[in-house]
Hints:
3 copies of one chain form a homotrimer. Chain A is mostly helical.
Amino acid sequence: MELLTINNVWMMICTALVFIMHLGFSTLEIGLARSKNTINILFKNVCIITGGLLLYALAGFNLMYPGDFNGFFGFAGFGLEAPIKDGALDLAYNEGYTYWTDFLFQGMFAATAATIVSGAVAERAKLETFLVFSVVLVGLVYPIAGSWHWGGGFLAEMGFYDFAGSTLVHSVGGWAALVYIAFLGPRIGKYGGDKPLEGHSIPMAAIGVFLLWLGWFGFNGGSVLSAEPGATSYTLVTTCLAAATGAVVAIITSKITSGSLDVTMALNGILAGLVGITASADSVSITASIIIGAVSGVLVVLGVLLMDKLKLDDPVGAVPVHLMNGIWGTLAVGIFREGSSVGTQLIGILSYGAFVVAISVVLVLILKATMGLRVSPKEEVEGLDIHEHKMSAYPDLLDD
Amino acid sequence: MELLTINNVWMMICTALVFIMHLGFSTLEIGLARSKNTINILFKNVCIITGGLLLYALAGFNLMYPGDFNGFFGFAGFGLEAPIKDGALDLAYNEGYTYWTDFLFQGMFAATAATIVSGAVAERAKLETFLVFSVVLVGLVYPIAGSWHWGGGFLAEMGFYDFAGSTLVHSVGGWAALVYIAFLGPRIGKYGGDKPLEGHSIPMAAIGVFLLWLGWFGFNGGSVLSAEPGATSYTLVTTCLAAATGAVVAIITSKITSGSLDVTMALNGILAGLVGITASADSVSITASIIIGAVSGVLVVLGVLLMDKLKLDDPVGAVPVHLMNGIWGTLAVGIFREGSSVGTQLIGILSYGAFVVAISVVLVLILKATMGLRVSPKEEVEGLDIHEHKMSAYPDLLDD
Amino acid sequence: MELLTINNVWMMICTALVFIMHLGFSTLEIGLARSKNTINILFKNVCIITGGLLLYALAGFNLMYPGDFNGFFGFAGFGLEAPIKDGALDLAYNEGYTYWTDFLFQGMFAATAATIVSGAVAERAKLETFLVFSVVLVGLVYPIAGSWHWGGGFLAEMGFYDFAGSTLVHSVGGWAALVYIAFLGPRIGKYGGDKPLEGHSIPMAAIGVFLLWLGWFGFNGGSVLSAEPGATSYTLVTTCLAAATGAVVAIITSKITSGSLDVTMALNGILAGLVGITASADSVSITASIIIGAVSGVLVVLGVLLMDKLKLDDPVGAVPVHLMNGIWGTLAVGIFREGSSVGTQLIGILSYGAFVVAISVVLVLILKATMGLRVSPKEEVEGLDIHEHKMSAYPDLLDD
């Protein structure tokens, strides 16, 4: 009983920390977008965490953890149904947390995948279309895919390993983002314009990254699923060292490639290191965590350059951060973790990639044909805030 | 001993989370006010949390928890006096927390009531007058009223129930705000001006609401007064579901009433849901928590419209969020909670309303006659920051 | 085992709270500097927390806690080496936390000293030079000096007492800052210019101070080194009361000295109170904590005036906040703490002062002769962001 109480306290704190990542994503995205689209981004992020949590309560949780199932798809029914014993909550559910903590912790995770897409399609995607896409992603794609590993499905049985979601969360969001932006096209002026499209508030972006790092204490620390002192504290150390190394190496790499000391690359390096270590934070050596972070730091800088070469416009760098480093982190499990193999990890990566890409392509094509993916050029140039929301984010500062 | 240690850790974390609500209120209020009054709002909020905590240490704590008393008014003496046994802190004080945690958790709550008023009177209230009002509110009104229920007074004995303060905290602040703005009058240009008075930074407002939601993990989660795993985690789930539902329903409602996708209404919907569920978060069903949040989401949108119809100028929507939903949440206890009755809840609501309104009216009339409630029209038009503080919040951004 | 688990949960939370102080320092510093140097400050702060953590893992931790040593200098070897027993982490390391929690908590502390310097030298210091200085400060000076007391060195044996680092953290950073700015000289236009140099975003500064106060829950609360309920909760109360008193007294003092209600002084008063109580938060009376905070509130206001009289340009007030109140807080231990003496406290203060000043002077002279301390006047006037980083913090808001 006391052990459950301790464990549950830790898990509730981790839940709060993952919750605050949604604020981190919000300020990161608005900071890296232009001021005229700020309200639109905030609106999307509010919809994702609120609607996402309700969807997860309605169906997601029971799709992701269906109990006994065929390993590919199972559903335990709509709504939440707590285990009851003698008229009270059955605390024997798990020694690490109660049923309710389990739901809320997982629910805070779920919306993350859609948030990743949100940043990538910022500044030109039609709001309603994006919301429909998100509903399918959070309500169906993410939990079904999640069930394959964390729900005890076929990848769990094969020995695939992804500790806290380099693939299950970050790559899933990253694949969906990649498909979406490929069909959506770049922002007007992004390629061939007079001057680069820049974010409007680097301090907001920095606040976002620090809050995301803070949230990762819960994202990875909570993925231990108990407060076991050795495992949780070790996980926090590998997590923080990978983040730190990611930043330092991204600074050096971008200094080499661009010649300047780029703070957005430093910030992206932190996120890249965090995404990279997420698959293995509990089970690789300290040295390995630093190597993983270092590779992430290189990858994210080259990834941003690659995206621009391919003319795939991703205002916040979601694909380099979440997809490329999600893949790298999952592969790194095969390299550095005892008992894991690169082959099995690859099967997992490809399974998730194929599933998410296939569904996303079909879905985006349907949405394109029906609702339309993009706002009008006029709306895009004048800003989504005024058109879709009839508001400005800084009426006073910009007009007076 | 171990159980006390766990419980106390949880309660200290909740205390920290309630503390950070003061930052949330601060950024919400400045975001929804014009930039020329930013310093003034920050100054008020710093005074409230610092002065409020000292007042609560000096007298509030012992007014709110007077021990055995007549049920209406009691006072256990000035200052803090910890229970000592054998020369050390007596840990038998409570199995959920120590004396010191108890004081600090309650102290962080106390200042909240004044903060609610602060937002409502923003942009035209005289600073010194408001501070005097706040001293009386935090130092006397809030703790005396609190003692009636949480201190074991007459409402506790009648079976009135308010889990974490829909009435004791939010309505108390809301009633005081309503009285204050009724006598204060609207801002110049609010009614009949050329263009609407808009907040100057929606991102700041969004940061505020996310921090308030985070803080509510501690506000409601800590109101369990221990880390009991079932009760705490269940409380967090109902709290988050009501917040999520409040946002979604407020978005739909405001889309219907105004035709646009209003992010400030989405944010207010989150707060409305949180205030609504606060009275019953531990003891209503999941379905009820969603219904409570949904009603809150409608109420807050209609409440803002109603205030404008009545020409009651409330820049941050404090009355719709805290008073209207505080009342709704307290009534909802009678509807959805086993063993509670709408009648008893109504008696509680009316008792608090009558007491706070009566004292506020008297106090505001005295202050109006002596110190004056409003700044001069010149000061108001040019901004309180320059006049009362000789500073600008963004000297550089606004002047260069 | 259960007790270790609880304690370790508390210590991990405190680690996360100290981590978020780095965001607090970042937004405080950018808020109090001009917008044209924002990127530069953020870049420095990202380097400090990431590079600092890696340095502390590489050498700092084993310099600060060398085990048995001569009391002045010891080194337990490069890298982290966890105690292993029977192939697993030896949990008998400490009943308050695991080896990994210990490292991470101390690592989050370590970078703080450099951050203090960062604020003081803002807006004119050459980035690379500052980073070299920081490497020596975080990698050598701070941990060696720290070993004298917390590592069990000669000051520990003399009975010197500094609970959570008024001297070991704050004065160390403060002395280094004082030396650096003495050689660096003031910003162009600071003395004798047409108008005062003002910070560009007071809301950012306010966010910073609230986050720092939040972080201090972990800074002081975690310095108990376990979750012992009486000690941790008492520490939080003295910490918060000193912060509150510092603010209230700084408001009154600055009202007297300058005639206006200065919100930056209110914010600095909070920090001053926090720094002041840090040496004794666990072991002085409530009354003493309020007196300590009150003196801090006076000191910080007078300190800012004194710095200006001496033409020592310190844009964020780092020396008044961290050095002057660090010294005051350490002396206050001798006055208010049973068993401590002012004499021994003075010896400690002077030992740290002499060591940090001596090394800083030598280091700054070498750096001045080799790399140069300041950017060119052209760079300073046009802003470090454009020159060193080829970016602007608010491209959109400032240019459109």
